């Protein structure tokens, strides 16, 4: 049942390539993307806790125009930085790339064409309401 549904989906997805290609089912290494066994964490649990100083908070508020006065906002920021540092420390040498259905096929791309880019009137023609024939006004 699952194999038949996958075949139907792949046949429906032929519009992604320039010509219809027959998919080789022997290329699939796994029957499902969901792990069947527990996956051990790749993260090192020995990361030091990130503490943001008052000066850093002031600078971040000034640069990003975001209010970080609440303790929850600072905690979320610290957790995000800690998570990013864990990801940064993962060793990815000799790691195979993720499997994708289109991995063995070349995707067709359109040719790049250089234009003067002066198409403001064409873009604004689709707008319901414009201001000074320069800006479009989004509906409320």
From TrEMBL:
Q: Which domain of life is it from?
A: Eukaryota
A GO biological process of this protein is:
mitochondrial translation
- The source organism is Chironomus riparius
SUPFAM superfamilies found in the cross-reference section: Glu-tRNAGln amidotransferase C subunit (SSF141000)
Q: What is the lineage of its organism?
A: Eukaryota, Metazoa, Ecdysozoa, Arthropoda, Hexapoda
Recorded GO MF terms: nucleotide binding
Under what name is this protein listed? Glutamyl-tRNA(Gln) amidotransferase subunit C, mitochondrial
Keywords noted in UniProt: Mitochondrion, Nucleotide-binding
Query: Which range is the signal sequence, renumbered to this chain?
Result: none
**One cellular component (GO) term of this entry:** mitochondrion
Q: Which residue stretches, if any, does this entry annotate as coiled coil? A: none
